Amino acid sequence: MDNSEISNRKDVKKLLVLATLAGDIMLRSGAEIYRVEDTTVRICKSRKGIKYVEAYIVPTGIFLSLEYNGELISYIKRVKTISIDLNKIALVNEFSRSFVNSRMSITDGLEELKKINKINSYTKLTKSIFGSFAAAFFCVLLGGSALDFVASAIVSFIVVGIINLISKFELTFFINNLFGSMLAAALSHILVKIGIGGNLDKVIIGSIMCLVPGVPITNAIRDTMSGDFLSGLSRGMEAVFSALAIALGVGIVLNFYVKGVF
């Protein structure tokens, strides 16, 4: 039998699982909604015998439905954790093109996706090192001195490292950003006080750059421009609350600083 042809209901279910897994990996890796929808629909339509496919994707869930022999079959997947992993998005994109344009079996496709899903992201040490340098360069870009650069790099390294460590507790993004910004402001004050860094405001701004929700803001705009208003609004609110958490955390520490507590 041709691998591109669906022969029974069991194969249809496996195809749905395959498409949903591809969408799940992309969504959890920070892909745009329209990209996830396009990928899942293309995978389902690539096999003969499937006449109708509809995908409805939101940042927290995947709803996929197709028609086979006059019967509608649906699959729902809840997505809870979302991070940023552009490498996995690229790999799933490459896989979907290969699956659609070849006679790869559904079973082989599932194995390929499982391998992609198991690929580890960058190590915590790598994230801490490069995240700290990125934040420190923002400090210089905003007018910080060489000492401010060093202070911002040190603070960012510690903040990113600790945020990565507490990520295993699966706290909400609001708590993570609140704690991270409080830590960044407190450490920045300490380093400036002992002479590593001269401008407290520049060091703090540079240090919290590793917490700024850049990808959610970008995806919110792209989803809205693509007509996915619900997803755009939800991701926009995520970005707003992330920014509020950062501002609140820094504000709490600076309030103690102004009052001369430390």
Main features:
262 residues, elongated, mainly alpha
Query: Please, how many helices?
Result: 10
Order of helices and strands: HHEEEHHHHHHHH
**Strands across the major sheet, in which order?**
1-2-3
Over the alpha carbons, how many angstroms does the gyration radius reach? 23 Å
What is the overall silhouette?
A: elongated
List low-pLDDT spans: none
Structural class: mainly alpha
Q: Which percent bin holds the helix content?
A: 55-70%
- Describe the oligomeric state of these chains in a short phrase: single chain
What is the tally of beta strands?
A: 3
Major β-sheet annotation: 3 strands, antiparallel
- Distance between the amino and carboxyl termini: 75 Å
- % residues in beta strands: 5-15%
* Average pLDDT: 87
